[in-house]
Amino acid sequence: MTPAPRAGDRVWCTFGGHRYEATWITDRDGMAVVKLGSGYNIGVPPGDVTFREHPKAEPPALAPPVQKAGLPDLAIISTGGTIASRVDYRTGAVTSQFSADDILRAIPGLATIGRFRTEQISSILSENMTVRIWQDLARAIVRDLKSGAAGVIVTHGTDTMAYSAAAISFMVETPAPIIFVGSQRSADRPSSDNAMNALCAATAAVSPLGEVAVVMHETTSDDRCAIHRGTRVRKMHTSRRDAFRSMGMAPLGYVDYPGLSITLSPEAVTRQKREPGLREKMEERCGLVSFYPGMDPAVLEAYRGYPGLVIAGTGLGHVSTPWVKGLASLVRDGTIVVMTSQCLHGRVCDRVYDTGRDLLAAGVIEGEDMLPEVALVKLMWALGQADSSEGVRALMVANLRGEIRRRSLHGL
């Protein structure tokens, strides 16, 4: 009698008169779940499949990367995420387990763009990102830049990549490209975007660019990647490969694929001949609250004692009238409160309606057209830099890394 397969066993699956080689994952809810050679998981009724033992699959052996002399020195710093994920051959599921070296081995085309040094500072899915990891990342980036790297590539999970790109934008004063890149679909899937995104990111890292940017698919096709400013980018779809968009501005440029030709807009900050700077101190006790109609102002008491709070208000930057008193009380107690808008496009202007004027009188700071999450990261950073509320306020209203645009563009 053939023993029942275990998680990770390679099996033959006979279905519909055809035999498929697959990886056994589990039996659940009366279905047999297997991973096909295409990379996709399927569930089929156990009565429609037959199994026989087959040798377990092992991860394919990858040749060590070959570094070519004469190419620019680049650094890859891995934090984890889908771009650093592969099949777990024990379960057939996808987990974050690639190192930076693994990424370089798996995408040999990178070796035609630069000579790479690699470092792995974490191996997490990006929902587990923390301020401490941001600080480790900032220090690692500055070390690489000071030791001669022409650019730095940060591999990162897509869910919170925009937060991290904004954080590094403020923490690191960079003379060279710092490129965040991720993948919406893991390397085991035939529709994976990891290789193209990585090659386009490396192209941007050796370009004349001189700021923090996110490089990801521009369209659903494999034709080009967009280069987004690190303080003006947002993930706008849960799963599409073209999930990232520049908000309130056009992308800084594009990398065409597969030719890897790059174009940059005149607005892009270019390389500078100076040493990188590190201002890593951040205040973690900051909050971000999205207001909704009828929301109880008692919610604000959870942030009593917090040094900073960002509100994502409605429209031009509004909350209900009962909220004004609660926000005024927080400000009197020393909390810096910044108002942003849920609209994402356009800017806060609390001088139009009575509620807005009351908010200004209560001491709330207008966040201009900063994205709510960027305002949160900037407020954490500003509280770590300034030793007075006046100093924090001055930093929050200043355009430091392109996070505030003095003119709102139409059609974006």
Uncertain spans? none
Number of helices: 8
Main sheet specs? 8 strands, mixed
CATH topology of the largest domain: Rossmann fold
Could you please describe the fold and organization of this structure?
- This protein is α/β, with parallel strands linked by helices.
- It folds into three domains: 10-54, SH3 type barrels, CATH 2.30.30; 73-278, Rossmann fold; 286-397, Rossmann fold.
- It has eight helices and 23 strands.
- The strands form six sheets. It has an eight-stranded mixed beta sheet with strand order 9-6-10-12-13-14-17-18, sandwiched between helices. Strands 4-3-2-1-5 form a five-stranded antiparallel beta sheet, with no helix packed on it.
- A hairpin with an 8-residue loop joins strand 15 (233-235) and strand 16.
- Helix 2 crosses helix 3 (161-171) and helix 7 (372-385) packs antiparallel against helix 8 (389-397).
- The longest helix has 16 residues, at 131-146.
- It is globular, with a radius of gyration of 24 Å.
- The N and C termini lie far apart (65 Å).
- The mean pLDDT is 87.
Q: What labels would you give this structure?
A:
3 domains, 8 helices, Rossmann fold, SH3 type barrels, alpha/beta, 412 residues, 8-stranded mixed sheet
Topology:
Layout: E1 10-15, E2 18-28, E3 31-36, E4 41-44, E5 53-54, E6 73-80, E7 85-87, E8 94-96, H1 100-106, E9 115-124, H2 131-146, E10 151-155, H3 161-171, E11 172-173, E12 178-181, H4 194-205, E13 212-217, E14 224-229, E15 233-235, E16 244-246, E17 253-256, E18 262-264, E19 277-278, E20 286-290, E21 308-313, H5 321-332, E22 336-341, H6 354-361, E23 365-366, H7 372-385, H8 389-397
Parallel strand pairs: 6-9, 6-10, 10-12, 12-13, 20-21, 21-22, 22-23
Antiparallel strand pairs: 1-2, 1-5, 2-3, 3-4, 7-8, 11-19, 13-14, 14-17, 15-16, 17-18
Helix pairs in contact: 2-3, 3-7, 5-6, 7-8
